[in-house]
Each structure stands twice: as structure tokens, then as C-alpha cells.
Specification:
16 strands; Glycerol-3-phosphate acyltransferase 5-like; five-stranded mixed beta sheet; acyltransferase; 495 residues; five-stranded parallel beta sheet; 2 domains; 43% helix; alpha/beta
């Protein structure tokens, strides 16, 4: 998976490695995720001014205005958090694969951007395998707050830093927009501008390579907030809040049997595949529904499909979400023997829902399944859950979890897909002598195959270490190595 050896390359990020040359939507993300709706709206209001400055060839003034509005008064650590947990997903969605393959075909790889370095460095180094990143530098006061200004002239700063990085001679190749050729790209022996063409055999060999995927990401927004998308989100917010209130109220007051039909009136949709098992009869233990974990709504949607209030095992759901939940919840402690007794007790009363990943994952990957469920029962029904939303994600690691159900129901047309697989045969359970880990891995594999996802060995702890930024050099290097295995092997499961 490593890039081959050839001379150095200098590439612009936006407009070369990223298809969109406009920075605006990334500053909108910083404004929304690091500060809130008011700053988000203010930056959108100023977009015509920023666009006018760009038309008048005063793009750097517009850039400084975006930087000021989106960052002034925000803690530097909060911007770092957004750059680590939110921005990489949107950068990755906008990657120019041809440009990246040309970039990756060189031994030494440098990236420059007019955006603040803090916003792009983690993504570019870890996912695009750049050696160094040069960008504008935010001014931070002694209390850790960003002043909204940048150090010095942006172009002079970038040119000076690139020159120092290339003390051994001019870079062999420069990638960037034509507008960049008069400054930084003139430092290179050769220049290429989009669209990039794979011309040499060595470059064509890199067709098989992919940037390291973004597996964990956070934030509320589903789509990159371009000006039109941001305006649509702002206009939808009042109606979305009202709609969320109506949908949640319906879940409280109406019987579960009519909710699927009424929800269609208000834009919701549930797609059911496979045949669910019959309810447990008197005197029999219940079935354990083992689900993939996409949002906090998974157990609620499953109970709606089954037309009965099945209790759900929870770990870190907020108290408000538990209060709003139309089904019973069983809060676990993460103390193994205590949780085992709780689950056994609930199964003796009837059916139960568990999500053994322990936390949600938005991307098409499944986290490692805890083996506890396999030790406690042989009546296991795997259920593949997936969802589609338009504006807002329902779960975040950084925000207040109490808002999770509200944001989910604020989406115009939330869609859930529920696929019931056959109950595990006896020979696939622990009763046939299989270990709990083998059973858990098997369930993970068949659910991943159903959804078209990849299996991983990552856990809840890995997710929060990466998103919270307390991973440390050694653990994050290990994390990147595991991601490389996912990309290079393309096997259905890693374990």
C-alpha cells in the first residue's frame, strides 16, 4: 500500500487533490460544529460579499473574512476537534482520485493550502500519506482562543515554507489550479493542472491504490454545506423542529401497530426484508435479536416492525433519550458478570435487542462484536439495520446525546432498512462447542455480507480515541495499520 519511489511532488489541496477549489463549505462546517447555528448563519449571510471579493481578484481578502468569522473567539482545541472528527469525511468525499494517484506516485509528497493548517493536517498526513502540510497559521492568544487572524501574508508564508522543505532542489512536479501557477507552483520543474491524466505505466500501477478510508467521523451534518445546501438547511430548521416534535409525540400516544402507517404521512419510511420470528410463547425464553448499530433508533425501529415493545440493551444512551424512548431500555454497566445476569433475566421474560458493536458507526464498516451475547443464549436472530437521512446525523460523540433523537426526526424523509436473517442453527452456536468469539465473528460476517459492509477489529474504545484525540502516537499508528489492512486485503472479515 506504500507509494513508490520517485522525485518529490508539491500539490495544492483544494482544486487539485480535492475537486472543489472553493474553501467556503469547510469553513461553514467549522462554524457549525465548533460554534453553532448563529455563526453558521452569519457566515452564509456574508457569502455574497466573499463571492464578490473573489470576482474582484481579492480572493485572499475573502479567505481572511471566512477565517475570521468562522474562528474568532473559538478555542483552538475545538477547531482541532472538528478537524479530527468532522472534516476528514467531507474531504474524502471530494477527493480527485486521478490527482491523488499522481501525487502518491512520488517519494516525497508536500501539500499546500490557503486554509489554516490545523484544519487539514491530520487528514492529509494520515489519509493521503503526505510528508508535510503547509497552510496559513491561525493567531491564538495566551488563553487558547483564536483571534480570527492569520500570521503574515498567506502566499509569502506558503512559498517560504515550501522553499525550506525543498532545500535539496526544485520539486519535480507541482499540482494545482492554473491560478496557482504564478506563485507556488513556479517553484517546481513541471506543472500539472486538472483534469489529471494517468499517462505513464508507473502511474497506471497506482490505479489499485486508494486513500486510507475514513471509518470514524462525527458531527451533525450529512451533506457538505455549500451555499445552496446551507441555505436549505437553515430554511428547513424551524419546520424540522416542528416535525420532530410531531413525530416524537406520535410515538408516545399512538399504539405501535399503527405507527408505521402514520409515519408515512409525515415522511418516514421503513423497508422490511426477510421474515421475523413469531413472538415467544408462555414458558419459553425469548429470542435475542443481534443488530448492527447505525443509530440510537435501531431498537425502536425493530420494535415497530415487530409490533411489540421489545426491551433494548443500552450502554451510553442519554437519560433524555431513555425518557423519549417508546420501548423499555436496559442500561448495562460494562461489568461483564453484572451485564450477563441482566441479559439472562430479560431473556427469561421474552425477546431482547442487543447491538454488540457497543457504539454506532456511520460508514460501511462493522466494528468488532462483543462475544457476551453468544455466551448467554442459543436463540440468536441476526438483524441487519441500515438507514438513510438527508440533513442530520442522529448520533454524535462530541455533542449532547440528548439531542440525538430530535435530530433524527428533524430529517425530511428518514428511511430505515431492516433485514431479518434466519435464526442461527444449533451447529453455529456455543451449544455445538464453538467458542463465543467464533459465534460473534460469524454473526458479524453474515451481517456485513448482507449489507455489503467490511468487517473490522475496531472497538468502541478505538472510535472514541480517534474522535476525542487522546489516541497517542503509538495507538494511532496501530489504528492506521489496521485501516491499511482493511484497504489492502478486501476480505469479508479480519478475524
Amino acid at each position: 500500500m506504500e507509494c513508490s519511489s520517485s522525485p518529490s511532488v508539491v500539490s495544492e489541496l483544494e482544486g487539485a487533490l480535492l475537486k472543489d477549489p472553493d474553501h467556503f463549505s469547510y469553513f461553514m462546517l467549522v462554524a457549525f460544529e465548533a460554534s453553532g447555528l448563529i455563526r453558521f448563519a452569519l457566515l452564509l449571510i456574508l457569502w455574497p460579499v466573499i463571492r464578490l471579493l473573489d470576482v474582484l481578484n481579492m480572493g485572499d481578502a475573502g479567505l481572511k473574512l471566512m477565517i475570521f468569522v468562522s474562528t474568532v473567539g473559538v478555542r483552538e482545541s475545538e477547531i482541532e476537534s472538528v478537524a479530527r472528527a468532522v472534516l476528514p469525511k467531507f474531504y474524502m468525499d471530494d477527493i480527485d482520485m486521478d490527482g491523488w494517484r499522481v501525487f502518491c506516485g512520488h517519494e516525497r509528497r508536500f501539500v499546500f493550502t490557503k486554509m489554516p493548517r490545523i484544519m487539514v493536517e491530520r487528514f492529509v498526513k494520515e489519509h493521503l500519506r503526505a510528508d508535510e502540510v503547509v497552510g496559513s497559521e491561525l493567531v491564538v492568544n495566551r488563553f487558547g482562543f483564536v483571534t480570527g487572524f492569520v500570521n503574515g501574508d498567506i502566499n509569502s508564508h506558503i512559498s517560504g515554507r515550501i522553499s525550506k522543505l525543498c532545500v535539496d532542489g526544485k520539486p519535480a512536479l507541482g499540482l494545482g489550479k492554473p491560478s496557482s501557477s504564478s506563485s507556488i507552483l513556479n517553484l517546481c520543474n513541471e506543472q500539472l493542472h486538472p483534469p489529471f491524466m494517468m499517462t505513464t505505466k508507473k502511474q497506471q500501477d497506482h490505479q489499485i491504490l486508494r486513500p486510507l478510508p475514513v471509518i470514524f467521523h462525527d458531527g451533525r451534518l450529512v451533506k457538505r454545506p455549500t451555499p445552496s445546501t446551507a441555505l436549505l438547511i437553515l430554511l428547513w430548521m424551524p419546520l424540522g423542529i416542528l416535525l420532530a416534535f410531531i413525530r416524537i409525540t406520535i410515538g408516545f400516544i399512538l399504539p405501535m401497530s399503527v405507527i408505521p402507517y402514520v409515519s408515512r404521512i409525515f415522511g418516514g419510511k421503513i423497508i422490511v426484508k426477510g421474515k421475523p420470528p413469531a413472538p415467544p410463547t408462555d414458558g419459553n425464553s425469548g429470542v435475542l435479536f443481534v443488530c448492527t448499530h447505525r443509530t440510537l433508533m435501531d431498537p425502536v425501529v425493530l420494535a415497530t416492525v415487530l409490533q411489540r415493545k421489545i426491551p433494548a440493551v443500552t450502554y451510553s444512551v442519554s437519560r433524555l433519550s431513555e425518557i423519549l424512548s417508546p420501548i423499555p431500555t436496559v442500561r448495562l454497566t460494562r461489568i461483564r458478570h453484572v451485564d450477563a445476569e441482566k441479559i439472562k433475566g430479560e431473556l427469561s421474560k421474552g425477546d431482547l435487542v442487543v447491538c454488540p458493536e457497543g457504539t454506532t458507526c456511520r460508514e460501511p464498516f462493522l466494528l468488532r462484536f462483543s462475544a457476551l451475547f453468544a455466551e448467554l443464549t442459543n436463540s440468536i436472530v441476526p438483524v441487519a439495520m441500515n438507514y438513510r437521512v438527508g440533513f442530520f446525523h442522529a448520533t454524535t460523540a462530541r455533542g449532547w446525546k440528548g439531542l440525538d433523537p430530535i435530530f433524527f426526526f428533524m430529517n425530511p424523509r428518514p428511511v430505515y432498512e431492516v433485514t431479518f436473517l434466519n435464526q442461527l442453527p444449533v451447529e453455529a452456536t456455543c451449544s455445538s462447542g464453538k467458542s463465543p468469539h467464533d459465534v460473534a465473528n460469524y454473526v458479524q460476517r453474515i451481517l456485513a455480507a448482507t449489507l455489503g459492509f467490511e468487517c473490522t477489529n475496531f472497538t468502541r474504545k478505538d472510535k472514541y480515541r480517534v474522535l476525542a484525540g487522546n489516541d497517542g502516537t503509538v495507538s494511532y499508528t496501530s489504528f492506521v495499520d489496521q485501516v491499511k489492512k482493511v484497504v489492502s486485503t478486501f476480505k469479508p472479515c479480519l478475524h
